[in-house]
Amino acid sequence: MKADSKPPSRPDLVERAHLKEPGDASHVMYRYDPVPDLAGLVQRFWIPVWSVPPGQEAVQRVLQYPVCLLVVASDYARFYGVTTGLSTTALTGDGWAAGVMCTPAAGALLAGVPVARHTDRHVDLAAVLGGAGDLLVDRVRTAMAGDPHAETAHAAAMAAFDAALRPFLPVDPEGELVDRVVAFVEEDSEVTRVGQVCDAFGLSERALQRLVHRRLGLTPKWLIQRRRLQEAAVRLRTDEAALAETAAVLGYADQAHFARDFSRVTAMTPGRFAARHRAPAEALRVAVGGRDQDDAGTAENGRAGRAG
């Protein structure tokens, strides 16, 4: 990607993984697709730029997808594994971050170890990428030092990520398989049982468990539950249907099971979430399909970070 090119940014939607509070205007999110030959490692680049009045904070909550993240900000640079619960971050002051939402296959390729070692934790980017990570951080911070909203800055930051990640291509056959498994679960709402995934890919349950644990640090059951919870959040924000009907559409045996799953991860009942987050359709645009994720969320220092 040439630093002087004008990258195509996606619309700033409220995406299905981001449990964004209605009326939260704390940040602007820029999203960009990778160049085609980098798509084996990168689902997208994302650049949040935020401004929060002194003494205030804007809490971001994210139901993260089953992928690793690379994040560079002005004061830290990290490689994140998947947060299995709810990712939360309190944005404060003025700031920016530049990040990569990896493909499911990419985490293990970049880390060089089973991704399970990074589940629910992060490490410094240099611990994963070595000297290339240090160079990446310097290039991104130089690019973003001026106007963090500038498209030229974004293009230069993405070119730095491109240069650092390209040596990890091509994706291995097992990585391509785990990409297909994740896509199958995330794109088909009818998938509610692990056995359906096994049948679709001709894998035993044990083989599927090993694959998902090794490459994602997760379980097949988690993949299904996470997609259902993200779908639930979208429906609760945008649909006036009764909770029992929502539970049935999502494939739950009854409303009680749905409520327990949702409350355990979000710390909020479905009814309370709907009351708090539901907004008129013209005021809240939600990306229902695909794997779009608003990545304003998680870093322990409360400045910027990842998705969820």
Evaluate the radius of gyration: 19 Å
What is the share of helical residues? 25-40%
Tell me, rounded to a whole number, the average pLDDT.
88
How are the strands of the biggest sheet laid out side by side?
A: 1-3-4-9-6-7-10
Q: What order do the helices and strands follow?
A: EEEEEEEEEHEHHHHHHHHHHE
* Tally of contiguous helical segments: 11
The total strand number stands at 11
How would you sum up the major sheet?
A: 7 strands, antiparallel
Low-pLDDT regions: 2-6, 281-308
Number of domains: 2
What is the CA–CA distance across the termini? 26 Å
Percent of sequence in beta strands: 15-25%
Task: Tell me, briefly, the overall form.
Answer: globular
Key phrases:
single chain, 308 residues, alpha+beta, Arc Repressor Mutant, subunit A, seven-stranded antiparallel sheet, two-stranded parallel sheet, 11 helices, disordered N terminus, disordered C terminus
Report on the structure:
The protein is an alpha+beta fold and 308 residues long. The chain folds into two domains: 9-168, no CATH class; 173-282, Arc Repressor Mutant, subunit A, CATH 1.10.10.60. Helix content is 39%, strand content 17%. The strands form three sheets. It has a seven-stranded antiparallel beta sheet with strand order 1-3-4-9-6-7-10. Strands 2-11 form a two-stranded parallel ribbon. A two-stranded antiparallel sheet has the order 5-8. A hairpin with a 3-residue loop joins strand 6 (69-73) and strand 7. It starts with 8 loop residues before the first strand and ends in a 21-residue tail after the last strand. Residues 2-6 and 281-308 have low confidence and may be disordered.
